[in-house]
Write a structure and sequence with these properties.
By secondary structure, the protein is an alpha+beta fold. Helix content is 30%, strand content 37%. It folds into two domains: 113 residues, GMP Synthetase, Chain A, domain 3; 59 residues, SH3 type barrels (Roll), CATH 2.30.30. Strand 7 and strand 8 form a beta hairpin. Helix 3 packs across helix 4. The longest helix is centred in the middle third of the chain and has 17 residues. Pfam families: DUF150_C, RimP_N. This is Ribosome maturation factor RimP N-terminal domain-containing protein. Keywords: Cytoplasm, Ribosome biogenesis.
């Protein structure tokens, strides 16, 4: 019956993206006015990162956006051995408790904790270093060698600069000039 369908659903989620949804409702608070100055993702990030210290789980990204009438808080995590459903469940409970304790979000929202997947965007130094030696696609705000789209192998990342080796040379791309970067997945 119910238990079997729940287990089947969790197994499907584990295979796809280790997604766990948790409905939550936080209370209204005075600190909500202050969050307009600071993006919610930064406030949530500041709450979550201390929880992850000392664990093998890395916070990849946080998104807070409205889809239709529903607000969604999406937290993407990763770890070397791969994210499990248990990791997502445990962290979603901790995040929900932290948000409620700190009265961080006044609106009704859906909390999603998941792994970002293979095609996730590369945004931070750790993302590029983890993919050292791999092929990536980089879109930039300004053209490099007459193109805003470049592909190549990640050679290094240092001082907020990506060193990307293509067929001709090694490009040095500032992190602030990267509009989007993704791993090229080869099958």
């Amino acid at each position: 019956g119910i238990r079997r369908s729940i287990n089947s659903q969790l197994m499907m989620q584990r295979k796809s993206s280790s997604l766990v949804r948790v409905e939550a409702k936080a209370t209204t608070c005075d600190c909500y006015r202050n969050m307009r100055k600071t993006p919610i993702y930064q406030s949530v990030t500041d709450l979550i990162e201390p929880t992850l210290k000392g664990s093998d789980i890395e916070l990849v990204d946080v998104e807070y956006k409205k889809t239709g009438k529903t607000w969604s808080l999406r937290v993407f995590i990763d770890k070397n051995q791969g994210v499990t459903v248990y990791d997502c469940q445990r962290l979603s409970r901790e995040i929900e408790d932290l948000i409620e304790i700190h009265e961080l979000i006044a609106d009704h929202y859906v909390l999603e904790v998941s792994s970002p997947g293979l095609d996730r965007p590369l945004k931070k130094e750790s993302d590029f270093l983890r993919n050292k030696g791999k092929q990536i696609l980089v879109k930039t705000y300004s053209p490099i060698n007459n193109s805003k789209t470049n592909t190549g192998t990640v050679k290094n990342f240092a001082n907020d600069t990506l060193f990307l080796e293509n067929k001709k040379d090694t490009l040095e791309i500032s992190l602030t000039d990267i509009a989007q970067a993704k791993l090229i997945i080869e099958f």
